[in-house]
Amino acid sequence: MKKIIGIGLILILLIVGVSFFINNPINTGNGEELSQQSVDYSENGISLSMPGNWVSAKSNSNDTVLAIADPDAKDSAGFNSVNVNIEKKSNARSLQSEFTSNYNTLARNSDFNILFMGNVSFNGQAAMEADYTSVANNQTKQHKAIWIPKGSDIYVILCSAPESEFENMVGTFDFIINSVKL
What's the pLDDT at 38? Predict the structure, then answer.
């Protein structure tokens, strides 16, 4: 009898837990539900979902194959301060060697502070992540970079926001990263 009651309680908790996740879609932090306000976007053979108010953006990096930004987030110079860039490094060395070389170089520059480096999974495949801050024009930005190998190329999904806003953007960044199809 106690087993039946125990199993019944576990089932009730599972049902309540599942209904919580079904009824609480991903949130941007400001009340907008990404699952209902997102749009699909593709460029250069890469597709993703992004918040409905985000726009295509330009990047200064020659390696950028796709860039999107929150048009409502501007820095003091009028540039988009919250953005996601996807870069492609063609004919790259191994993921580990490109990743290590890049962040060893950044670590030697006092304008950068490495917060985290490690292995992650991207759509079921091995990838690498680096989280760091950078200072430019007296503004500190925080970045999350996911490095993904594909054939002889490496793609880097780089999410950036002012350090003071980054935590509020993590849900949006994760939503975008999880939707990327290379």
Answer: 92
Q: What is the pLDDT of residues 82-123, one digit of tens each?
A: 999 999 999 888 999 999 999 999 999 999 999 999 999 999
Cα 125 to chain centroid, rounded = 16
> Of 114, 109, 111, whose CA–CA distance to 144 is shortest?
114
The two structure tokens encoding residue 95:
């993921």
Task: Locate the domains of the chain by residue range.
Answer: 37-179
Q: What is the pLDDT of residues 7-59, one digit of tens each?
A: 434 434 334 333 333 333 444 455 555 445 899 999 999 999 999 999 999 98
| Helical (H) or strand (E) element with 96 | helix 95-107
Is there a contact between 129 and 118 (Cβ–Cβ < 8 Å)? yes
pTM of this structure: 0.80
Distance of CA 28 to the CA centre of its chain: 13
144 half-sphere exposure, CB direction, 13 A CA radius: 18
Structure tokens at 127: 């990838």
Contacts of 175 (CB under 8 A, 6+ apart): 26, 34, 38, 49, 51
The structural architecture, per CATH, of the domain 37-179 is 3-Layer(aba) Sandwich (3.40)
Q: Amino acid identity, residue 146?
A: I
CA distance 56 to 126: 28
How far, in Å, CA of 40 to CA of 15, rounded?
A: 31
